[in-house]
């Protein structure tokens, strides 16, 4: 319950994250890199090994194969959710901020209205040119005179743009359907987060009833990622002109979804008491695939679009991976499958360092 309360608070506060932290684009990308590294490490170093351990306890014939299969299913499901709803975009849209297209349009409108600007490069007609000048291609004087008046008429009717620059384009302003699709996709995503959190806690408690902070890795990944998801929804709603009351209401409902997913998983576990370890193992493996997909969808675009901040972003990624590894020291003994079963009589191992005898 403590985890659920903290995740709820973090998700609810996500709508005001930029105001609280003064997030710039670079700071937001560094934060995303750190969280992406943490989620990638949690999925591969914690959730998948826990899943295999739970499947071993369920006496599955090939626990690693089944775990990898469910991880692939989780990754594929999340991939198609991302492709369908396009919801994994963590950039605040500020409708009041000056937009680049506006400056470009103003600059273009101030260009001199000259015939050379109208005709484009390679077609030069200097001001004050003599209409009686000779033409190599044999045009008569009268044609040249008419051509000159044509320029005057075009000056009065045509819109002037810089021929050497692409025409400025106004970005697409989000519509109501945009934030609805975003909210639907993130709602499914956050329900699976609740499932992952409950499954990880159950796995740790099953392997060590006195576990200190069970499910810590999954909890931290969700806790840090939820504010970014809430930020995405509220920013897009604001840009679409949605009222502040509607934004607050939807943000509150979204914050409740992750705890709801965890509670639903717990209720389902009670009705499947005979297959609890099998359910926990498959759910954790599925969640590992979801975490890996989400992490990679955050990290891979950096290779192309954020080369200018590569040092900061790479450092943040490494820090997230290191933190995910350090979390393992806070997990219960035997939590990764190896040695998950009670030791044989006479077998002794130092605390935290199990050995086979």
Automatic annotation (TrEMBL):
<keyword id="KW-0812">Transmembrane</keyword>
<feature type="transmembrane region" description="Helical">
    <location>
        <begin position="311"/>
        <end position="330"/>
    </location>
</feature>
<feature type="transmembrane region" description="Helical">
    <location>
        <begin position="28"/>
        <end position="45"/>
    </location>
</feature>
<dbReference type="GO" id="GO:0005385">
    <property type="term" value="F:zinc ion transmembrane transporter activity"/>
</dbReference>
<feature type="compositionally biased region" description="Low complexity">
    <location>
        <begin position="338"/>
        <end position="349"/>
    </location>
</feature>
<keyword id="KW-0472">Membrane</keyword>
<dbReference type="GO" id="GO:0016020">
    <property type="term" value="C:membrane"/>
</dbReference>
<feature type="transmembrane region" description="Helical">
    <location>
        <begin position="249"/>
        <end position="267"/>
    </location>
</feature>
<feature type="transmembrane region" description="Helical">
    <location>
        <begin position="66"/>
        <end position="85"/>
    </location>
</feature>
<feature type="compositionally biased region" description="Basic and acidic residues">
    <location>
        <begin position="129"/>
        <end position="157"/>
    </location>
</feature>
<feature type="transmembrane region" description="Helical">
    <location>
        <begin position="279"/>
        <end position="299"/>
    </location>
</feature>
<feature type="region of interest" description="Disordered">
    <location>
        <begin position="338"/>
        <end position="357"/>
    </location>
</feature>
<feature type="region of interest" description="Disordered">
    <location>
        <begin position="104"/>
        <end position="174"/>
    </location>
</feature>
<dbReference type="Pfam" id="PF02535">
    <property type="entry name" value="Zip"/>
</dbReference>
<protein>
    <submittedName>
        <fullName>Iron permease</fullName>
    </submittedName>
</protein>
<dbReference type="InterPro" id="IPR003689">
    <property type="entry name" value="ZIP"/>
</dbReference>
<keyword id="KW-1133">Transmembrane helix</keyword>
């Amino acid at each position: 319950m403590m985890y659920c309360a903290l995740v709820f608070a973090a998700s609810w506060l996500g709508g005001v994250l930029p105001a609280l932290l003064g997030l710039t684009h670079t700071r937001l990308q560094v934060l995303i890199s750190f969280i992406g590294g943490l989620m990638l490490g949690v999925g591969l170093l914690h959730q998948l090994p826990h899943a295999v351990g739970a499947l071993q306890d369920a006496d599955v014939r090939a626990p690693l194969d089944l775990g990898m299969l469910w991880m692939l299913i989780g990754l594929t499901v999340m991939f198609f959710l991302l492709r369908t709803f396009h919801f994994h975009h963590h950039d605040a849209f500020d409708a009041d901020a000056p937009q680049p297209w506006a400056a470009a349009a103003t600059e273009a409108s101030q260009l001199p209205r000259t015939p050379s600007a109208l005709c484009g490069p390679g077609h030069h007609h200097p001001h004050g040119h003599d209409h009686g000048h000779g033409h190599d291609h044999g045009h008569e004087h009268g044609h040249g005179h008419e051509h000159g008046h044509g320029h005057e008429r075009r000056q009065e009717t045509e819109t002037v743009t810089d021929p050497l620059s692409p025409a400025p384009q106004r970005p697409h302003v989000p519509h109501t359907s945009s934030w609805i699709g975003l909210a639907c996709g993130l709602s499914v995503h956050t329900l699976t987060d609740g499932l992952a959190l409950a499954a990880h806690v159950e796995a740790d408690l099953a392997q060590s009833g006195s576990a200190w902070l069970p499910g810590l890795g999954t909890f931290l990944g969700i806790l840090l990622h939820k504010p970014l998801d809430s930020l995405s929804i509220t920013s897009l709603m604001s840009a679409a002109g949605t009222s502040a009351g509607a934004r607050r209401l939807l943000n509150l409902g979204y914050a409740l979804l992750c705890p709801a997913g965890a509670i639903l998983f717990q209720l389902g576990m009670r009705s499947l008491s005979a297959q609890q370890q099998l359910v926990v193992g498959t759910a954790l493996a599925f969640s590992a695939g979801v975490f890996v997909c989400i992490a990679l969808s955050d990290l891979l675009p950096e290779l192309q679009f954020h080369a200018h901040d590569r040092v900061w972003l790479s450092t943040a990624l490494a820090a997230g991976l290191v933190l995910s590894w350090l979390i393992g020291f806070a997990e219960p003994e035997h939590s990764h499958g190896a040695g998950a079963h009670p030791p044989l009589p006479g077998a002794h191992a130092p605390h935290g360092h199990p050995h086979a005898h």
